[in-house]
Amino acid sequence: MKKKKSAADKIFVVCNTIFMVFFVVITLYPVLNTLAISLNDGIDTIRGGVHLWPRKFTLKNYHTVFQKQNLLTGAYISVLRTIVGTFLSLALNAILAFIISRKKFLFKSQLSLFWVITMYVNGGLIPTFIVYNGLGLTNSFWVYVIPGMISAFNMLVLRTYMQGIPDSLEESAQLDGAGYTVIFLKIISPLCKPVYATIALFVAVYQWNSWFDSMLYNRMSTKLTTLQYELMKLLSSVMQQSGSAEAAKNAAAAVTPASVRAAATIVTMLPIICLYPFLQRYFVTGLTIGGVKE
Amino acid sequence: MARIGVKEKEKKITWKEVKHQKVLLIWSAAIVVYGFIFYYLPLGGWITAFQNYKPKDGLLHSKFVGLDKFKFLFSDSTFLKVVRNTVAMGVINLVVTFVMAIVFAILLNEVKNTFGKKTVQTISYLPHFLSWIIVTGILHDVLSGTGIINEMLVKLSIVDQPINFFAHTTYFWPIVAFANVWKETGWNAIIYLSAITAIDPSLYEAASMDGAGRWAKIKHITLPGIRPTIMILLLMNVGNVLNAGFEIQYLLGNGLVKSVSETIDIYVLKWGISQNDFSLGTAAGIFKSLVSIILIVIANQLAKRAGEERLF
User: Fold this and answer.
1) Mean pLDDT of A37-59
2) In this structure, are residues B48 and A128 in contact, taking their beta carbons and an 8 Å threshold?
3) Residue B256 in this model has a pLDDT that exceeds 50
4) What average pLDDT score do residues A236-262 get?
5) I need a surface site. Which of A203, A256, A275, B5 has the fewest CB within 10 A?
6) Which tens digit of pLDDT belongs to each residue from B121-177?
7) Interface residue A153 vs chain B (CB under 8 A)
């Protein structure tokens, strides 16, 4: 097909390649730069010029991070909410999707509508706060995992996938005397593994990255704040400190707030970076399944 | 409660069917109760916007003040400013992220080297999975006095002194727009790339036969091919314009850039939680919801008139 390339074509290919390289550099440079800063001596970093490689290598910044009790507690809470939240959310969304995708279910359309509405209307920050407060969910771990377990979008993705499974499987199981519980657990769920993985990953990333609920509901309980929120506090303290006497004091200890923050940033994104290469294909699958029906 | 009403209306319900679907009915009832508490009950809280809500009096005993809170909102110059900021950043972000995603998808599709294409794509949507906290942290490193941007600007003699990007109102909106592009371009492009894949390859072959060049093919085949996808996503995002303004503005904002960084959501947070004026916060939230719904309906109508795809 491509026997002879015109000059314009060649120019295009070259330009396009340059654009792609540029794009990759823009995407990766900031992340690698933060990594280099996190591994560089804090005072040395102030001189500037640290790019992709640490100039004065040190692990002191990480050492400081792992000694901060609030970051360790935050990491524990973040891991816990990611595991519990993902499990609960996936289970409930899958059950709901299973019910809605049963052709014979009596309230199929009503139940769908009930949840689709939630995609477009919500009470907003303050009324939600009042309700959660009234339910005793503030200053509690459960505020991370109980509200918002069902996402109408994720549920619709699961439903679309389940609708693609032939009815004959369900019918023959019913002839063998299987109830809906058995059909869900033994027939539908095993076939849904890829889409379950996708949804679980969406929820897990959401849970891991959440900080606002921590700030809003659990600010007062230091034992319940998440890693992202603790990182945010670190970030805002760096912004306020820079140039102040506090900064000079920190500098004497050979770590600067900025370098410690860089280390904490890397620690926080590490789980995602490590899992990313293995999991990224599921993200794409999920988005395309959702896109078909949406 | 709602379920009983529905049950009575349904005609085809037989005792046998109900018994058969017992498990499904129990689970769906439980899930509806849950949904009512966590998704619908807060809607009832909208009443607070018409009250002078005091937490100790609760919803039932707080004094009704009619539209006073809304009147205050529209006479408050800060509120008008945050509305302007929200709309401006929402529109800028929508336009730049949209255009960038489409351009990126089309150009990536033109890369013929499969390995290169895959690698670039995998890297491109990595930032989507990083939290805004991390992104703002990274931005601080890149844009700091010793960061790469200032270093280049000084070396190229564009400026004499490093710019303090976070202290000037001029830079705030562009930084937010850039951060959005950086974070979401690759992710948003996925859907366009899959739409491009769905275009019939024979169209391209036929065009090649007719001597169409690369640009002609992009212009006359690729772009029209992904047009429905573009329209649907545009529609979905128009309704979200006012929702796109919280995390990064909250995290990057500071006293010096307050006049351009604060959005409706930050206003709600400030009045509602920090100042404890729940009613005013709710009123501002309602205003935002109503505008969003109106925007969706208008966009939908326009699309209908233009004979395009629409949401409903």
Assistant:
1) 85
2) no
3) yes
4) 65
5) B5
6) 889 988 998 999 999 988 888 888 888 888 889 888 888 888 888 888 899 999 999
7) no
Which structure tokens are listed for B106? 């089309």
Q: Does any CB of chain B come closer than 8 Å to the CB of residue A104?
A: yes
**A283 reaches B (C-beta below 8 A):** yes
Whether complex ipTM tops 0.90: no
Homologous superfamily of domain range A68-294: MetI-like (1.10.3720.10)
pLDDT, position B238? 83
Interface test with A, best of B28, B230, B294 (most A CBs within 10 A): B28
Over residues A154-181, the mean pLDDT reads 89
Determine whether the interchain pair B120/A24 forms a contact, defined as Cβ–Cβ distance below 8 Å. yes
Q: Residue B3 CB: number of other CB atoms within 10 A?
A: 17
Are the Cβ atoms of B146 and A31 closer than 8 angstroms? no
CA distance, residue B24 to nearest chain A CA (Å): 6
Min CA distance, B137 vs chain A (Å)?
7
Q: Which top CATH class is B69-305? A: mainly alpha
**φ, ψ of residue B277 in degrees (nearest 5):** -95, 80
B161, amino acid identity = Q
Give residue limits of the domains in chain A: 68-294
Residue with tokens 């809280």: B45
- Are the beta carbons of A86 and A204 closer than 8 angstroms? yes
Domain boundaries, chain B: 2-66, 69-305
The amino acid sitting at A25 is: V
Comparing A169 with B309, the larger pLDDT belongs to: A169
Any CB–CB contact under 8 A between B140 and chain A? yes
Q: Choose among B18, B124, B273: nearest Cβ to A27.
A: B124
Question: Above pLDDT 90, what percent of chain A?
Answer: 38
Alpha helices in chain A (DSSP H): 7-38, 42-46, 60-67, 69-101, 108-120, 125-134, 152-163, 167-175, 180-182, 189-191, 193-209, 212-218, 227-241, 245-252, 257-293
**pTM given for the model:** 0.85
Which residues on B lie below 8 Å from A111 (Cβ)?
28, 32
Residue of A nearest to B54 (CA): A130
Is the model's pLDDT at B210 over the cut of 50? yes
Given A102, A127, A209, which is nearest B42 (Cβ)? A127
What rounded mean pLDDT belongs to chain B? 86
